[in-house]
Design a protein that fits this description.
Structural class: alpha+beta
Number of strands: 20
Strand order of the largest sheet: 6-8-11-10-9-13
Radius of gyration: 57 Å
Shape: elongated
Length: about 525
């Protein structure tokens, strides 16, 4: 019995201790749960509220169907930004109403659009996506305004008609233009007022009155007198010293009016409009005249027939003046070039005279040996003629080799000016080739030849002649070359080959004139 009471007394305190521990643990767990719940509520609350707000907004949008009537100036982008807060959603709006595709109608004023229900963007993001981008990333159909290009444009306001409608009436009272007469409505020029030293802007010699005018007075006068705008010279200091009015090259109003021509129209601007005579004079002053230039070189080198009388009366070149007889340092003592002086031999019974022009030439004979042709080599001018001494001439122009022993004749004839030959309907002069240079194996372009016809048959320098070749036993003729006459005499003429179509150029060929100068 006593033993049992002792065991009970020992167990009672142990039971009370366990109960307090369990209560403390329970309280600790409850505290942790409460703290955790509060933490979860703090973390999850925005999400729950945002989801509830979005759900409610979606429910409110989905609960209504919107029909919009298009007004002038609206676009698919602006409508999407208005209903959704995002202009990029214009495609859904266009797809629902079948707009923006090929063959679909365009957005028009008064059109009823069905706006599909979608989530509306709110806050600062809505303002960003609602603005249309400035670049070209958005198709034009999204930014095309309803009614654009079809709305009537307001009528342009026309200026009130002037009294006469002329330029003078429109510029009346402006600058130095003449006023319009009240009765006739026509502009009449008004004589400029008489100038005085005070009115003219030039500094008066011996006075410095212009320099004493203050800057404020000048500014006030310029503001009131608008007719002298931009015509008054600037005022400034030169090298640190005030020298009064400094002219910069501008003219006064009176000088500008006086400088105008009678052909100029009165305007508020000064324009230099020359009349026809003045324009032509200015053009001729800077453009060289288009005058025909003679073919002097072709004429100087052109061969010509030499008669026996001319040959008998011709003189000769003795030697080059100042040439040494020794050949050690002068291998060609008898040859001369341009600007050299030569000594002349006797010229038959006709003496030379100072200033006389001579032609130096060599000789060539035709194939039959009957015709003598002179081949010019240069033009000389007699400079000295003294009794008992040989005459002296200077070489002015050279077309070949000039040397001692060559004959000289007084120069005759002149080069024809350049002129265009007019082609004939039918060849009118028929002749033949009389002479070709024997030293040329194959006459070609720029070669000379003589024709058996001249001025007696109407030929002139500048005429063009065609040469024809006829084969042996063939009646047909073939065009071989065309030539132009450069020197014409009574019974013969000299031509130069211009174009060549074959190589059969020979004496006896038929020649026909097909173009002649006027």
């Amino acid at each position: 019995m006593g033993h049992s009471l002792m065991r009970a007394a020992k167990k009672a305190p142990s039971t009370s201790t366990l109960t307090r521990t369990d209560a403390s643990g329970l309280l600790f767990k409850v505290a942790i749960a409460i703290v955790g719940t509060l933490a979860l509520l703090v973390v999850w609350r925005p999400t729950v509220v945002h989801a509830q707000g979005a759900a409610s907004a979606s429910a409110s949008v989905s609960a209504q169907t919107t029909t919009h009537v298009v007004k002038a100036g609206e676009t698919l982008w602006s409508l999407a930004a208005r209903y959704y807060g995002d202009g990029h959603q214009w495609r859904d709006l266009a797809r629902t109403n079948k707009l923006g595709t090929e063959g679909a109608p365009e957005l028009r004023v008064g059109m009823k659009l069905t706006v599909p229900s979608k989530t509306v963007v709110r806050g600062s993001k809505a303002a960003q996506v609602a603005a249309a981008p400035a670049d070209s990333s958005v198709p034009k159909v999204a930014l095309a305004k309803a009614g654009e290009g079809t709305l009537p444009t307001p009528p342009a306001t026309k200026p009130a008609a002037s009294a006469s409608g002329s330029l003078a009436a429109q510029t009346a009272g402006k600058g130095n233009a003449a006023p319009v007469a009240a009765s006739a409505g026509a502009a009449r020029p008004v004589a400029p007022p008489a100038k005085s030293p005070a009115a003219d802007n030039r500094p008066v010699a011996g006075t410095r009155a212009a320099a004493t005018v203050s800057a404020s007075t000048q500014a006030a006068a310029a503001a009131q007198d608008t007719s002298r705008l931009n015509l008054s010279p600037a005022r400034g200091a030169l090298m640190g010293e005030d020298r009064g009015m400094v002219r910069l090259g501008l003219v006064t109003q009176g000088e500008q009016v006086a400088a105008r021509k009678t052909s100029e129209a009165l305007t508020v601007f000064h324009r230099d409009i020359p009349d026809a005579a003045e324009a032509e004079r200015r053009a001729l002053a800077i453009i060289p005249p288009n005058r025909p230039v003679p073919r002097q070189g072709e004429f100087d080198a052109a061969p010509f027939l030499l008669s026996e009388a001319q040959r008998a009366a011709s003189g000769s070149i003795a030697r080059r003046r100042g040439a040494s007889e020794a050949t050690g340092h002068d291998a060609y003592p008898t040859r001369a070039i341009r600007t050299d002086e030569v000594e002349l031999g006797a010229a038959g019974s006709t003496p030379f005279s100072v200033g006389q022009r001579l032609v130096a030439f060599g000789e060539s004979r035709s194939a039959d040996g009957k015709t003598v042709v002179a081949i010019p080599s240069g033009v000389l001018e007699v400079t000295e003629v003294e009794a008992g001494r040989p005459a002296v001439a200077v070489v002015r122009r050279q077309s070949g080799r000039i040397e001692g022993g060559q004959r000289v004749l007084p120069a005759f004839g002149e080069a024809a000016p350049r002129s265009a030959a007019q082609q004939l309907d039918t060849p009118d002069v028929v002749t033949s080739v009389r002479w070709l240079e024997r030293n040329e194996l194959l006459p070609t372009l720029q070669s000379y030849l003589l024709l058996d016809a001249g001025s007696a048959k109407g030929l002139k320098a500048g005429d063009e002649v065609a040469l024809y070749h006829r084969g042996a036993g063939s009646p047909a003729e073939t065009l071989t070359a065309t030539v132009r006459l450069v020197r014409v005499e009574g019974e013969s003429s000299t031509a130069i080959i211009l174009r060549q179509y074959g190589h059969q150029i020979a004496t006896g060929m038929t020649a026909r004139r097909f173009a002649k100068v006027p």
